[in-house]
Design a protein that fits this description.
- The chain is mainly alpha-helical and about 150 residues long.
- The chain is about 75% helix and about 5% strand.
- It is built from 4 helices and 2 strands; from the N terminus they run E-E-H-H-H-H.
- A hairpin with a 5-residue loop joins strand 1 and strand 2.
- The longest helix has about 40 residues.
- It is elongated.
Length: about 150
């Protein structure tokens, strides 16, 4: 994008959309990592280490950290191919955030906080991760162009 400034010379305007989507993915990743454990500790008073939802929380901690780490890698890498690969990995991690509670387990009682509150939050965060990964893949050419423009 080129805009004219008062002296008549062109000034290139940098596209901020790729940077914004990376920031969103990092925030979603950190939320996926931290919210299940924080909400569980806040909502449940009788917590035992052998509960199924504890395993889910620990797996989500790693999934969320990986989402944030791959979002940062997406921002750092300059190759279009690498950006596409990282956006696909982020989409897969979003799917993992959604299906982890189904395979790792949740409490049997539907009134428990892990099933009533945390599981829906993980579904929303996983869906947002998938959507942001798709947007990141679509914005990859613009991100590469921005980085090339910035390096010149």
């Amino acid at each position: 994008m080129v805009t004219r400034i008062k002296d008549g010379g062109p000034k290139e305007k940098q596209d901020r959309a790729p940077s914004v989507i990376v920031a969103v993915m990092v925030i979603i990743g950190l939320a996926t990592a931290v919210l299940p454990k924080a909400l569980f500790l806040r909502l449940e008073y009788e917590w035992k280490d052998n509960m199924d939802c504890v395993l889910t929380q620990n797996i989500e901690l790693f999934v969320g950290c990986f989402i944030a780490a791959f979002a940062i890698q997406y921002f750092i890498k300059k190759s279009l191919k690498q950006k596409f690969i990282f956006s696909i990995i982020i989409i897969v991690l979003g799917i993992a955030a959604i299906v982890t509670p189904l395979f790792a387990g949740l409490c049997d009682d539907p009134d428990m906080a892990c099933r009533a509150i945390i599981f829906p939050i993980l579904i929303v965060l996983g869906a947002l991760t998938i959507i942001s990964g798709i947007i990141a893949g679509r914005l990859a050419p613009r991100a590469v162009a921005n980085q090339a423009q910035h390096d010149d």
